[in-house]
């Protein structure tokens, strides 16, 4: 299949007709920048073949913003010795026409579309836009922008056509009795075995499940029968044990021995009560002894504390007498240092007053020129404001914006161009009348010689000769006259809105306005220099300066008058005077601190001495009273008596504790508990044996009534029957599995022979890019992995650029097979291989040039420089 001409009109960006003629049989390279319309041409080819002319879902084919558009495509192509011309128009007045062999045969509408689908190998959509799954061979060979790497889906949609071509080339039956047998075996095997894991399913699984349930019921009956036999033996054993225990009554012996142990415990309880009474008496005596010992210790401690308190009081009084002398010395030093501080303070005040007067004089001297500068700036600002107001008023009167002057210039140029066009295409009437003769043109008299431009029909009257009706012959002249009238009206409206008579007046006014604006801007900058923060801020600065001057003068007047003559004081002596004052104040402060510390120490010592003397006197009265002396003597005698009683009770407690320990009451308690628990266990065991006997007897009676033996026989018979049925399904499933494997092996061999032509073409192109590499094909004739270097990489794991390159090479191979099978081939590459490096691009150029020797290839790219070495002329689309 070879395209020879492509014509577009009102198709997306091509509002005017675009014609591409003289297409070559091999590679046709179309170049242009982005949005030049390359993809639009490729879309037009797809729409002409794949889209139904009657669909309304292709509004995006019309130029943007143009209602009532009629996107149309005309394609001329040849195939198998026949010439075809396809004309298709969408949306408004949609139609489709296919002319074959210069009109020898003509097809319209759906008939033409169905004929194209059968010829190229695709299907028309039932309704709406075309779908990728119906695109067939065009969907595989016509690569859209950014879609070169998506091979699997496109080849899958064209699989039927590819398999038919391979069948025709290889002689293998792609579908026939072998496939039908394989499908039947697979279907019957799938009815019995799961395709994923080979496990039983359907009736086979039902037979296995029924056998499993029957075996479970049989095993349950057998287990129940075995348990029943065990229960019979257990019942006999329980009856024998129950009779033996009932005759011996072992629990009664344990109860008697437990009662004897409890009696021994009662006798030991009385001895324990006597022992505990002795312990309580001993504890009371110990408490009394401890209390008396504590009281005696306190009496001794009170005497010791009284002696220590008296010694402390005497020492404190001696310390008070020694502190009197340091206090007197501190008072004398404090007074001397205070006189020194007062003299230093008077000297600092005199030096400070002199320094303040000189500082105020300096500030006033600096402030005076600042006030004069501010006064001058205010006057200059007033003059600038007055001049600026006048200039601003004039600028507002003459203001004309850049947009207005640009619009006037543009309208003037457009009007001039239209007038030039009018003069170029208008009818020129040159006349030369004899002296004394005149002619009337639309009632206007003309004499002598001259020239008139006619832009509309006119009547020429020549007295004595006749009347002529003259119509200008230019077809575009009426439209040009209308455009000229609109342009003149628009130009007049702009002049009126700008308030000028001509463009020259507007230019002059705009220039004057610009000059005034620049002059105003200069005044603003000058004003900014004199008053950077505004006129009001400048006035505030002047007022603040005047206020500061008055404040300084007031402070100067408040200072004491300078003494006449040379006082010897200088403001340079101020730091020294201040330093001397600080040193004197520091020494005075230290003296004051020393005095305060000496006074506080004396006061503290005096208070402590008085406190200790008072405490010693009060404690002596209390401790040395006759009552306290009698109490101390009585407590000493009571202490000796209580100590003797406590020692005797301690001996009696030890003797009672030794006697109680010999009897070991804890062993008697353990014996009582042991025998009581043994008696309870024997009674409980006898009661449990009785209950078990009754339960087993009821269970055996019930089992006899259910006919357990008959159920077991029936379950065994059902298991044997279901076993045979399950074995039949297993044998059939194994046979089908084996048969499917044999058929799959034969089918794989046939598929390999079927794939041979495609593999040869793939390897032919692949060797140009990856020497010693091969593509692995699946049963659907689709490349799935790239084998190279002893390994294999799935296509999905390769980089985007590599997948795009392999996708294009595979399409070249598919095109070769289709061509050999007599099917039409046309390859479209829309901005392909943009993700290919320079080295790979050189290899792909070889493959592209090789494929172009057998197929027509239309390649659209915005990288024309990269494809200049393809040996074909580049055709530019767009600017």
UniProtKB/TrEMBL annotation:
Q: Which residues form a coiled coil?
A: 204-295, 581-615, 705-732
Q: Which GO terms describe its molecular function?
A: ATP hydrolysis activity
A single BP term in Gene Ontology: double-strand break repair
Record-linked Pfam families: AAA_23
Record keywords: Coiled coil
Q: Does the keyword Coiled coil apply?
A: yes
Q: Where are the annotated segments for Disordered? A: 617-641
What positions does the domain Rad50/SbcC-type AAA occupy? Answer: 5-80
Matching entries from PANTHER family are given as:
DOUBLE-STRAND BREAK REPAIR RAD50 ATPASE, PUTATIVE-RELATED
The entry's protein name is: RecF/RecN/SMC N terminal domain-containing protein
């Amino acid at each position: 299949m070879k395209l020879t001409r492509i014509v577009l009109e009102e198709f997306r960006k091509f509002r005017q007709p675009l014609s591409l003629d003289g297409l070559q049989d091999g590679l046709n390279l179309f170049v242009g920048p982005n949005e030049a319309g390359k993809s639009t041409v490729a879309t037009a080819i797809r729409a002409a073949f794949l889209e139904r002319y009657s669909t309304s879902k292709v509004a995006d084919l019309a130029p943007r913003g143009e209602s009532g558009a009629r996107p149309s495509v005309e394609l001329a192509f040849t195939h198998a010795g026949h010439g075809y011309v396809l004309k298709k128009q969408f949306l408004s007045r949609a139609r489709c026409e296919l002319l074959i062999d210069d009109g020898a045969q003509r097809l319209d509408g759906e008939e033409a579309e169905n004929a194209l689908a059968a010829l190229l190998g695709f299907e028309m959509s039932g309704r709406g836009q075309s779908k990728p799954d119906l695109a067939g061979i065009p969907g595989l060979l016509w690569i859209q922008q950014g879609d070169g790497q998506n091979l699997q889906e496109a080849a899958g949609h064209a699989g039927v056509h590819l398999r038919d071509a391979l069948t025709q080339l290889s002689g293998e039956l792609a579908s026939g009795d072998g496939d039908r047998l394989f499908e039947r075996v697979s279907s019957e095997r799938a009815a019995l075995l799961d395709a994923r894991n080979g496990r039983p399913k359907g009736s086979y699984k039902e037979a296995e499940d029924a056998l499993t349930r029957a075996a479970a019921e049989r095993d349950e009956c057998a287990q129940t029968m075995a348990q029943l036999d065990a229960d019979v033996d257990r019942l006999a054993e329980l009856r024998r044990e129950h009779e033996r225990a009932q005759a011996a009554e072992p629990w009664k012996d344990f109860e008697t021995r437990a009662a004897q142990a409890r009696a021994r415990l009662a006798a030991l309880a009385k001895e324990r009560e006597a022992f505990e009474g002795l312990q309580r008496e001993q504890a009371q005596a110990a408490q009394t002894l401890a209390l008396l010992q504590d009281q005696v210790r306190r009496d001794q401690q009170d005497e010791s504390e009284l002696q220590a308190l008296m010694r402390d009081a005497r020492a404190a009084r001696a310390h008070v007498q020694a502190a009197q002398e340091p206090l007197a010395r501190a008072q004398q030093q404090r007074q001397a240092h205070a006189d020194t501080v007062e003299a230093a303070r008077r000297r600092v005040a005199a030096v400070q007053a002199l320094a303040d007067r000189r500082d105020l004089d300096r500030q006033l001297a600096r402030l005076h020129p600042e006030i004069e500068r501010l006064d001058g700036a205010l006057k200059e600002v007033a003059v600038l404001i007055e001049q600026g107001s006048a200039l601003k008023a004039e600028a507002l009167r003459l203001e004309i914006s850049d947009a207005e002057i640009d619009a006037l210039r543009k309208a003037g140029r457009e009007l001039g161009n239209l007038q030039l066009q009018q003069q170029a295409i208008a009818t020129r009437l040159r006349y030369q009348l004899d002296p004394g003769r005149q002619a009337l043109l639309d009632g206007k008299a003309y004499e002598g010689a001259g020239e008139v431009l006619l832009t509309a029909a006119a009547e020429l009257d020549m007295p004595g000769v006749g009347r002529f009706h003259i119509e200008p012959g230019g077809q575009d002249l009426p439209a040009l006259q209308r455009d000229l009238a609109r342009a003149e009206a628009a130009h007049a409206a702009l002049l009126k809105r700008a308030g000028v008579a001509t463009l020259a007046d507007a230019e002059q006014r705009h220039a004057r306005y610009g000059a005034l604006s620049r002059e105003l801007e200069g005044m603003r900058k000058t004003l900014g220099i004199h008053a950077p923060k505004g006129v009001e801020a400048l006035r505030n600065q002047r007022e603040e300066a005047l206020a500061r001057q008055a404040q300084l003068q007031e402070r100067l007047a408040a200072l004491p008058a300078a003494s006449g003559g040379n006082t010897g004081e200088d403001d340079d002596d101020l730091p020294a005077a201040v330093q001397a004052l600080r040193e004197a104040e520091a020494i005075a402060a230290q003296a004051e601190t020393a005095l305060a510390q000496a006074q506080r120490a004396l006061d503290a010592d005096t208070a402590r001495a008085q406190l200790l003397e008072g405490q010693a006197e009060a404690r002596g009265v209390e401790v040395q009273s006759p009552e306290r002396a009698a109490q101390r003597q009585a407590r000493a005698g009571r202490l000796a008596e209580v100590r003797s009683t406590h020692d005797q009770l301690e001996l009696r407690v030890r003797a009672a504790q030794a006697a109680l320990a010999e009897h070991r009451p804890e062993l008697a308690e353990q014996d009582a508990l042991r025998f009581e628990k043994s008696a309870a266990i024997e009674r409980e065991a006898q009661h449990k044996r009785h209950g078990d006997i009754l339960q087993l007897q009821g269970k055996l009676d019930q089992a006899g009534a259910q006919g357990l033996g008959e159920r077991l026989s029936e379950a065994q018979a059902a298991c044997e029957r279901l076993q045979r049925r399950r074995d039949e399904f297993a044998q059939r499933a194994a046979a089908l599995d084996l048969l499917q494997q044999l058929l799959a092996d034969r089918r794989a061999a046939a598929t390999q022979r079927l794939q041979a032509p495609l593999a040869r073409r793939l390897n032919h192109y692949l060797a140009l890019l990856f020497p010693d590499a091969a593509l692995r094909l699946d049963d659907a004739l689709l490349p799935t992995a790239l084998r190279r270097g002893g390994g294999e990489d799935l296509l999905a794991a390769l980089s985007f650029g590599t997948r795009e390159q392999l996708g294009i090479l595979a399409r070249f191979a598919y095109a070769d097979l289709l061509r050999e099978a007599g099917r039409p081939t046309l390859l479209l590459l829309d901005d392909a291989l943009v993700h290919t490096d320079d080295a790979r691009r050189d290899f792909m150029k070889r493959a592209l040039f090789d494929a172009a020797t057998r197929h027509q290839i239309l390649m659209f790219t915005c990288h024309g420089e990269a494809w200049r070495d393809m040996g074909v002329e580049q055709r530019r689309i767009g600017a």
